[in-house]
Design brief:
Elements (H helix, E strand, L loop, with lengths): L8 E5 L2 E5 L3 E4 L1 H10 L3 E2 L2 H8 L8 E2 H8 L9 H7 L8 H21 L2 H17 L4 H8 L37 H12 L7 H11 L12 E7 L5 H16 L3 E5 L2 H14 L3 H7 E3 L9 H11 L5 H15 L42 H11 L2 E5 H14 L13 E4 L5 H8 L2 E4 H12 L12 H9 L3 H13 L17 H17 L9 E4 L5 H34 L6 H34 L6 E10 L2 E11 L3 H8 L5 E6 L13 H7 L9 E5 L5 H4 E6 L7 H15 L3 E5 L2 H17 L4 E3 L7 H10 L4 E5 L15 E4 L9 H10 L3 H15 L9 E5 L18 E4 L1 H12 L1
Parallel strand pairs: 4-5, 6-15, 6-16, 7-9, 7-10, 8-9, 10-15, 17-22, 17-23, 18-20, 18-21, 19-20, 21-22
Antiparallel strand pairs: 1-2, 2-3, 11-14, 12-13, 13-14
The protein binds iron/sulfur cluster.
Length: about 900
């Protein structure tokens, strides 16, 4: 067995790495690569390190992050040496040398923890460690050495059958419909005082905010006319506790039916922490509040079992990753793979989506793991929990499908949603934009074809088609069996797996349409070989594509009809066999019928309507349609026809808000800052409130921060932005002046990469680590976690990253935009500009600036600088920033001096 203490520890730094054995030394890239490739080194997150060193992952290494995931499964950990050290309570290594040294200390501490664990735990680990040893896990020998001799197993799944120990969920009686008892202001204020508790007294603004929020919890007086409160609250008001006060009282009085929805996961976590003040006892909290995400976020035990069997535990990183997932399954309370405790770094070893239920292939009660399934458990909890914390995308997806679930012939409880709190309400427009979109693309068609027919021309797996999934449900009905056969035949019209490689010789109507769409987009594009996605209008069209649309439309119609007949037949069973069906059987039949109806009544008709518009040439007022080739870094990923609502708040108002009794829509950036006269038009237009019969109640509360003292804004006039060298030099000097804690936002990925490649080394020489979206092999959540955890690191990302960067304190003290964040002039944007007027561009740019500035100052002691590297930034846009924030238009050198002095 290898002596761990003799292994060098390697942490990337600057052009190469820091390597520590007896002593620490800086080594160049070649030497770093050599050590990395040897496999004989301690690292944290091997895939990330490989990316940093620009070397292909080779031999497995002693990855301390893997050891952490094995020893402390389910515990949140930022995926770096620093993150591991912090999670283990070993302090916070600052310099790369400290970080490298900490790797050995962390590894030894983790191994010690195994040694100190009780014999029963060690015995439980042996089968899995045996498997890990076979799989080639570098830590296996060290762990085996501690836990004792390995018991050889014959069972192929030894150590992986974690589902055997998971708790079984129980059904609960339906909670009944929520009532409408009001919440008095006095009660709400008293609750707020209790919530603020030891944190101090509620401030007058926070009390006023809670009062304004209470309107959303007053009884509705007219069906279809919910009580809507639009409340803007500057950063620092304390809005979460402000709305939790009336919201929690409402749910206690009226029963389940309150959904709190956010846009970012981070805010979800914060809300859960605040709810803990209300219900400090964990058992009570578990009953009172639940975090509900889309099912694609949760682990599917059956898919996990299949993945383990498919891997056959062959040596390699995939088997190691699955074993570490097995450890996590045994530790997680909710199976949430997007939660903080999931070892997301394993995504570099296998596609995590394999072990979720993204494709709607769940077989419900027919699944051997149904009674311990995480998803089934969370859905049941959400039905009875007084408070559900969710996200905008899920709320919109659920609302859009609600009418499928309303089946008065059954008494299966569904989730009640009568009161909403939409926090981060400024994102509702975008969430509705995606939630109510229709996309007829190659990837979508292939997915539907697979859902109906199962995988074709490949080894069989559980990923089976309708025939396999529903065979026991249709065996008694000839009609149902015929409909099923017809659907399977008709699905042949859809594009099949590998369609992208057949664009030159398409098979069937779906692929013919895609080939025509691909040719059309390239023909209409100015630069058909551009690096990123291309799009083209749907008018005028050539004969070939119109003909292809006609054929595909007919094919889709032939598929929709049998899917609906099949759904009808399944629903009939619910009545015919009412006396004999167990609740779980009813649930399965309902779920199957809903899946068929969703495709036969929503997805396929939406596709057919889009194709029909192509045929008739009709221009629809409410939609924007276009063709698109989805391309990243010059590689094509998808081709299709897309339809969006020009004003997606119309379906948002009709399908979500109008069905509620009340909704609070709140954010720090609801209104366009140009609304000097208190005009709320922009907030209403962006949230859909103006589509409802009753006007919303509006209120706004300014931030308590002293922006004159705490912030500085610089419009830098002398940077030649189109010259990557000049732009990179500006970022470098600004980041150095701030001493790190800097976020650089870009409107184009190519420019981001150009800057990153030029400034990473000089920043590293100054002791500043640079992370970059689209460069580092990490998801954006992990990048932000790393950035947040290090006070002096820097992060580059596209403009869309800004909302995910919730980094209070000194870790974020400088934000730099490469230019004014104007919206891209896409076909969709042009349609919206025509609808909402020429001020629409200004509105979006101002909101983006306002949101980005809002990231900077999160507390009374924060100081921050905001820089736009564009001389011609119009003054009218700067009204987005707080009035008191001092704005200086100056050269780069002056900005650098000022920033150094201000933040120094
Ligand atoms: S019930 Fe469905 S989601 Fe749950 S484990 Fe089984 S197949 Fe997966």
């Amino acid at each position: 067995m290898k002596d761990i203490t003799a292994l060098p520890a390697l942490v990337p730094a600057g052009h190469g790495a820091v390597v520590c054995d007896e002593a620490c030394r800086r080594v160049g890239q070649e030497e770093s690569r050599r050590i990395f490739r040897s496999g004989e080194a301690l690292v944290a997150h091997a895939a990330f390190v490989a990316g940093r060193l620009k070397v292909a992952p080779g031999k497995p290494l002693y990855d301390v992050l893997e050891l952490f995931a094995f020893v402390r499964p389910g515990m949140p950990c930022v995926p770096s040496a620093l993150g591991i050290a912090r999670a283990l309570g070993l302090g916070a290594p600052d310099a790369p040398e400290d970080a490298a040294r900490s790797l050995r200390t962390s590894a030894l501490k983790l191994l010690e923890e195994i040694a100190d664990s009780p014999e029963a735990i060690k015995a439980g680990l042996r089968p899995l460690v045996h498997t890990l040893s076979t799989a080639g896990w570098r830590w296996a020998a060290a762990v085996e050495n501690i836990i004792g001799p390995v018991v050889l197993q014959n069972a192929p799944l030894a150590g992986f059958e974690v589902w055997r120990k998971l708790p079984v969920w129980e059904d609960e009686a339906p909670p009944g419909k929520p009532s409408s008892l009001p919440v008095a202001l006095e009660e709400s204020r008293a609750r707020l005082a209790r919530l603020v508790g030891s944190a101090g007294e509620a401030r007058p603004e926070q009390r006023a905010y809670a009062d304004a929020a209470s309107y959303a919890f007053t009884p509705r007086e007219r069906a279809g006319a919910p009580r809507i409160a639009l409340v803007e609250a500057g950063t620092g008001i304390g809005k979460t506790l402000g709305y939790l006060a009336p919201a929690s009282l409402w749910s206690e009085k009226n029963g389940p039916g309150l959904w709190i929805s956010t846009y970012t996961r981070n805010l979800q976590r914060q809300i859960v922490q605040e709810i803990a003040r209300l219900y400090p006892d964990p058992a009570e909290r578990e009953d009172k509040a639940v975090v509900r995400k889309g099912r694609e976020n949760y682990l599917c035990l059956l898919n996990f079992e299949e993945a383990v069997k498919r891997t056959a535990l062959a040596p390699g990183p995939r088997s190691v990753a699955l074993a570490l997932v097995a450890r996590w399954i045994a530790a997680t309370a909710d199976g949430d793979m997007s939660g903080a405790g999931f070892p997301a770094f394993l995504a570099s070893s296998f596609a995590l989506r394999e072990i979720t239920d993204r494709r709607g292939e769940c077989i419900y009660a027919a699944c051997p793991h149904y009674r311990v399934c995480f998803i089934e458990r969370i859905v049941r909890r959400a039905r009875v929990a007084p408070i559900v914390v969710a996200n905008h995308a899920l709320v919109i997806a659920q609302a859009a499908q609600d009418w499928l679930s309303v089946d008065e012939t059954t008494d299966t409880p569904t989730e009640r949603r009568v009161r909403y709190v939409f926090d981060e309400g400024h994102h509702l427009f975008d969430a509705a934009d995606s939630g109510f979109a229709a996309l007829l693309s190659g990837a979508e068609m292939a997915e539907l074809r697979r859902w109906v027919r199962g995988p074709e021309g490949r080894a069989r797996s559980r990923r089976r088609g309708l025939e396999e999934r529903l065979k026991d449900l249709v065996e008694d009905s000839e009609n149902a069996r015929d409909a099923l056969q017809e659907a399977v035949m008709a699905a042949g019209a859809l594009a099949g797996e590998g369609w992208m490689s057949r664009l030159g010789s398409p098979r069937g109507p779906g692929e013919t349409f895609l080939a025509a769409a691909y040719a059309h987009v390239r023909a209409r594009s100015e630069d058909k070989d551009a690096f990123y996605s291309l799009e083209a209008e749907t008018h005028p069209l050539g004969e070939q594509i119109i003909e292809a649309a006609k054929h595909l439309g007919a094919g889709l119609k032939r598929l929709a009809a049998p899917l609906m007949r099949l759904a009808k037949s399944l629903r009939a069973q619910l009545n015919d066999k009412a006396a004999e069906l167990e609740p779980y059987q009813r649930a399965r039949i309902e779920a199957a019928a809903r899946g068929l109806e969703r495709r036969g009544r929503i997805i396929l008709p939406a596709w057919m309507a889009m194709l029909e518009t192509l045929e008739t040439g009709e221009v629809l007022d409410e939609f924007a349609d276009w063709f698109e080739i989805v391309r990243e870094d010059g590689k094509d990923y998808d081709v299709g026809l897309e339809r969006r609502w020009i004003d997606p708040t119309i379906p948002l108002a009709n399908e979500v808000l109008a069905h509620a009794h009340g909704a609070l829509i709140t954010s720090a950036t609801l209104r366009d800052a140009s609304d000097d006269d208190g005009d709320w038009q922009s907030a209403e237009v962006r949230t859909g409130a103006h589509h409802l019969p009753e006007p919303p109640k509006r209120a706004s509360f300014g931030s308590p921060f002293d922006y004159a003292k705490q912030s500085r804004v610089f419009i830098v006039k002398d940077v030649e932005r189109r010259d990557p060298d000049a732009l990179a030099a500006a970022y470098r000097e600004l980041f150095l002046a701030a001493g790190g804690g800097a976020l650089g936002l870009f409107t184009a990925v190519r420019m981001l990469r150009a800057v990153e490649s030029r400034i990473a080394a000089p920043l590293a020489d100054a002791g500043l680590t640079l992370y970059a979206q689209h460069v580092d092999r990490l998801d954006t959540g992990a990048l932000v976690d790393l950035f947040r955890s290090e006070e002096n690191s820097c992060l580059l990302g596209t403009d869309a990253l800004r909302d995910g960067v919730d980094v209070p304190g000194r870790s974020l003290r400088l934000v730099v935009f490469d230019k004014v964040p104007w919206p891209k002039p896409t076909i969709l944007h042009k349609a919206r500009r025509a609808r909402f007027g020429k001020g629409y561009d200004d509105l979006l740019a101002r909101l983006r600036l306002k949101q980005a500035f809002g990231r900077l100052i999160r507390g009374a002691s924060d100081k921050g600088c905001f820089v736009i590297l564009k001389a011609a930034t119009p003054s009218r846009l700067l009204r987005a920033l707080p009035e008191q924030a001092p704005i200086l238009r100056c050269g780069l050198a002056e900005a650098v001096r000022e920033i150094r002095e201000f933040l120094g």
